[in-house]
Every structure is written in structure tokens, then in C-alpha cells.
Amino acid sequence: MRKCLVLTVFIAFLMTASSETVLKLGSLSPAGSPWDKHLREISEEWLKITEGNFNMKIYSGGTVGDEIDMIRKLRVGQLDAAGLTGVGLSRIVKEIMAIQMPRKIETNEELFHVLGKMKEYFEKKFEKEGFKIIVWTHIGWVHFFSKKPVVYPDDLKKLKLWVWEGDANELQSWKEQGFNPIPLPSTEIMTSLQSGMTEALATSPLNAASYQWFGLANNMCAMRWAPFIGAVIFSKRAWDRIPQKYKDKMMEAATSIGQRMQDEIYKTDDEAVKTMLQYGLKINEVPPAAVTDWNRQVNIGFSKLVGVNFEKEALDLVDKYLNESRNKK
Question: Is residue 2 very low, low, confident or very high in pLDDT (cuts 50, 70, 90)?
């Protein structure tokens, strides 16, 4: 009788242990970064909400590949979720490019107003592609980091510019404008800077500091090039495995943690600039005449992507809500 009782308890333990479902999430964010820290906080909170039934395992620092790799793995079921930048998101829904067009949105307030108005528009498109947006975030502002100072467009044209691989139209746009783009996975940025294969890149200060890219590209163009957004996404296949009774609380927790993450990202981004300045970063100011040249360059080149890479409707909506935001001031 005692043996039967022990066996029953042991079987019950095994059944309980085996009931946990592991959800695999990939991210480029380095371990310990604000993005990574709060992803783990979401994971811990979700484990409580789902009564220990769903555990999110996070593969940070690009250990499961670049964002293109992660998207492919999401589609075939090797990953359940991913923390993606706007570049990765735009590989699923091209219209994301409209909100990240260079030299268009200029302030945090403008970005959050436009994104707030367009969330539903974007999320419906992701659902059609088989993905669920869990939380949006603003990763920071993209600046040019380079081995030599970049102030005017012609300064950047003299350098080998790292760009995200995977978008032939965008690559062609850079080339037609006279730039020298080198498409590579983001996981190869450091080695390409070390070898001289690339000499410049566009990224946020926090990324430049976190990955130590500024050690080789120690000039930062002061001009904001574009907003750098991101999101946590799940494949519909994985999201549908989670019982409906948990989902509202899971989304509430993710939204709350995402807001704290946003606040910390802004704070850490500012601190990153101060720290990099102590270690040799040079910030190159951009006079009004140079800004005019950059804006003209954007109008010449990147405007060609509208209607080719993504629907004009998306950019029209961005313009509508951007004007709405500016008219409030």
C-alpha cells in the first residue's frame, strides 16, 4: 500500500513537471540590457499568471541568429516569439517602414502620438501574417556612428556603410543616392568594423555602447536620423497554445512592464552617451545647412520606396497623425 502511494505521488509529480510548456523567445539584446532585463521580468510574471504552465525561455544576444534568422525560425516553429527592432518588423510588415522614414518624425511626443494612432492598423497586418504583437517600444533614436566625422551627406558617401541585409529595394536606394552600403547581418557588425569592411553604421547610442561598436566607430552625428522602434511578437501558432483565460492578464502585465522598460531605455540611452564621451566618443554637431542637405537627400532617395516597398496609404497615415501632433503644440 505504501509503495502504491509513493508511486502515485511520483507519477503526479511527473505529470505536474511535464505540464510546463516552454516558449522560446529570441532577441539581439545583450544580456543585462534594459530590453533583456524587462523581457525576463515579463517571463517571470507570465509564469505566475499561467500558474507555472508557460515558461518563456529567452535566447539573448543574437544566440539564435540575426533578426532575419529569427523570423524564419518563427515561421517554421523553431522559435515561438522574438524581440525585434523595426527593421525586423518591417521584414514581416513592410508598412512599418513608414513610421521609421528618415528625417520625418523628430520627437518622442510625435512618435508616440503616431504609433498610438496606428497600432491597430499595424497589428491587423501582423495578424494576417500569422503574428501577434505583445508590446511595442521605442528603442531610441538612430544616429550615424562612424570612424570619420559625418556631418554632411557627402561625408557618409565616402565611407563603407553597414546596412541590414535582406531588403534589395532599400539597398538599391542607398546606392542610387551615391552611398556605399554593405549589407550584412547585425551579428557581424563588430567584425566588419574591425576588418575595415565597414566604416559607419546607423544605430542608437544604447546599442553602440552595449555592443562596444563605438570603440571602433567613435564619431556620432548629432542629428537624429530616424526613430528606432521595436516590439515583442509571438507566432499565432504559439499564442494560440495559451488558454484564453490567461491572455488578458498576460497582456496587461506586458504593457505595464513595457512602460517601465521604455522609461529605463530613455534614461540608459542618455547615460550611454555620457559614458561613451568619457571613453573617446566625439559628437559632431550638424548645422542647419547640413540638415537641409540631409532632408533633400531623403526626398531624393527614400521617397522612391513609397509604393514599391510599402503602400503609400501607410505614409499618408503617418503624415496625417504627425500633422495632428504638431498642430497640438
Answer: low
Angle at 229 between CA 75 and CA 70, to 5 degrees: 20
Q: Give dist(CA 162, CA 156) in Å, integer.
A: 11
Task: Supply the pTM of this predicted model.
Answer: 0.88
Q: Which three cell numbers stand for residue 31?
A: 544580456
Q: Which fold has domain 19-327?
A: D-Maltodextrin-Binding Protein; domain 2 (3.40.190)
Contact by Cβ (8 Å): 318, 99: yes
Cβ(235)–Cβ(127) under 8 Å? no
Asked if residues 90 and 73 have their Cβ atoms less than 8 Å apart, the reply is no
| Model confidence pLDDT, tens digit, residues 43-101 | 999 999 999 999 999 999 999 999 999 999 999 999 999 999 999 999 999 999 999 99
User: Under the phi-then-psi rule, with left for phi > 0, alpha for psi from -120 to 50, and beta for the rest, what region is 103?
Assistant: left
Burial of residue 5, with CB atoms counted within 10 A of its CB: 0-12 exposed, 13-18 middle, 19 or more buried:
exposed
- At which residue does the C-alpha cell 533614436 appear? 141
